[in-house]
C-alpha cells in the first residue's frame, strides 16, 4: 500500500488560488460599472419580449442576468452560466429572491442546462466571447444554434483585438477583429442574417487604480498590471478631472436561427 503524504505546499497553493479567485470575483463585482453600462445598452437594443427564455452565457456575478430577468418578467426566464464557481456563488447569493432567474456553473463548450434542445428564445453574451479560444468559439456558435428555438436570436457583445496591442509574455491576448468574427460565422454556417458591427465604446473609470483593478478582475487574471504599468497606461487617456477613459474596440454580433 502506498502512503500518500499530505502535501503542505500544494495545499497552501490551492488555498492561495482559491483566495485569488474569490478576490477577483469580488473585485469584478465591485468595479465592472462601465462594462455593465455598455452591456445594458446592448441588451435594451435587443427588444426582448415579456415571457422570453434567455440564456446569459459568461454571466459573471449576474448583474446583467438580473437586468434580463426584469425585462422578460415573471413569465419569462433568465439563465446565467459561468465556469467560475465563485462568480456564480456571488450571483446566487445576491439574487436568491428573484423567481425567474437561475445560475449554473457551466460553459459554452462543455455544456449548460437545455443545451441540446430548442429551448431558449435568445442566447446573449456580454464581454465573454472574446476570451473563448478560437476553436471553441466555433463550438459555441454550434451549441448556441442547437439550444435556440426556430426564430431565436443569438446576440454577442465582446471586445475586438486592439490592432496596436503589444503582446505581454504569459498573458492572454485577444485574437479577432471584425472580419475574423464575420468569417467564423460564415465558416460555421447555421445562422442567418448575421450582422457583425465594430463600435468603439468609451469605458470611464474614477481613477487609473480603479481601471487596473477592473482590467485584472475582468479577464486578465494572468496579468499583474503593476509589472506592466507603462504598457497598461498606454491603453487609457487621463481626463482633466483625473478620471480615465479606456476606448474599447467592441464587436456587436446578432444572428437568427430560421
Ligand atoms: C468579463 S466577464 C463578463 C461578465 C458579464 N457578462 C458582464 O458583461 O459583466 C467574462 C466572463 O466570461 C466567463 N467565461 C470565460 N470563458 C467562458 C466560456 N467558455 N463559457 C462561458 N463563460 C466563459 C468568465 O468566467 C467571466 O466571468
UniProtKB/TrEMBL annotation:
One of its GO terms (biological process) is rRNA processing. InterPro entries: Fibrillarin (IPR000692), Methyltransf_25 (IPR041698), SAM-dependent_MTases_sf (IPR029063). SUPFAM superfamilies: S-adenosyl-L-methionine-dependent methyltransferases. Gene3D superfamilies: Vaccinia Virus protein VP39. Pfam families: Methyltransf_25. Keywords: Methyltransferase, Transferase. It comes from the Eukaryota. GO terms for molecular function: methyltransferase activity; RNA binding. This is Methyltransferase domain-containing. It comes from Paramuricea clavata (Red gorgonian).
